[in-house]
Design brief:
The complex is a heterodimer of chains A (108) and B (124). Chain A contains no helices and eleven strands. In chain A, strands 2, 4, 5, 6, 9, 10 and 11 form a seven-stranded mixed β-sheet that branches. Chain B has no helices and eleven strands. The radius of gyration of chain B is 14 Å and the shape is globular. The termini of chain B are far apart. The chains are: A mainly beta (108), B mainly beta (124). At the A-B interface, strand 5 and strand 10 of A face strand 4, strand 5, strand 9 and strand 10 of B.
Chain lengths: 108, 124
């Protein structure tokens, strides 16, 4: 089974600064990568799919990139509401959906 | 707007069966371009996909290897919902369970809508 690995585990960034979150797949997932944001007590929320397509209502400061096995979520100018845990997910190989362990984004 | 409303008990005894239901509004359980999933989340396992059901001229199911012998996911077209049954539960099955809609292109599906989550505790 495919394994998704995210780094770093925790990221502390000041408001207005750039945040870069990484995700690596143990085998190629072509472009079938999604990113989710989860806040305490809430279900995960889809942010990005197909590597770089923003879901409805997601601000333009969120950018997804990458291909094959290496992917990145960049937040260009961090806002206070962006804190939370971000998960990458592949939906190309078996199992049909596999998640990374998450990156906790803290506001410094 | 799609909404998924989960229901079911929050406490299940060891060796018994966990049963949850997910009622769909704003879409149909029989829509051919989507799949209906159950995903759980726990501190030890993270987000773990459990299985899905989907309609492509007939009904299909896929299940995670880790639970394949114990799981059943069934659509209910009359009530536009789908359900999860997990038998012979142990404390390791304690988790928050989510139902999701997967939007699919060419068989690859990401979860774009999620239920509110149900914390299920396995304890006597």
């Amino acid at each position: 089974e495919i394994v998704m690995t995210q780094s770093p585990a925790t990221l502390s960034v000041s408001p207005g600064e750039r945040a870069t979150l990484s995700c690596r797949a143990s085998q190629s997932v072509t472009s079938n990568i999604a990113w989710y944001q989860q806040k305490p007590g809430q279900a995960p929320r889809l942010f990005i799919y197909s590597v770089s397509t923003r879901a409805t209502g997601v601000p333009a400061r969120f950018t997804g990139s990458g291909s094959g096995t290496e992917f990145t979520l960049t937040i260009s100018s961090l806002q206070s509401e962006d804190f939370g845990i971000y998960y990458c997910q592949q939906y190309n190989n078996w199992p049909p959906q596999a998640f990374g362990q998450g990156t906790r984004l803290e506001i410094k | 707007q799609v909404e998924l409303q989960q229901s079911g008990p929050g406490l299940v005894k060891p060796s018994q069966t966990l049963s949850l239901t997910c009622v769909i509004s704003g879409d149909s359980v029989s829509t051919k371009s989507v799949a209906w999933n159950w995903i759980r989340q726990s501190p030890s396992r993270g987000l773990e996909w459990l299985g899905r059901t989907y309609y492509r001229s007939k009904w299909y199911n896929d299940y995670a290897v880790s639970v394949k012998s114990r799981i059943s996911i069934n659509p209910d077209t009359s009530n536009n919902q789908f359900s999860l049954q997990l038998t012979s539960v142990t404390p390791e099955d304690t988790a928050i369970y989510y139902c999701t809609r997967g939007t699919c292109t060419g068989g690859s599906c990401y979860s774009d809508y999620w239920g509110q989550g149900t914390l299920v505790t396995v304890s006597s």
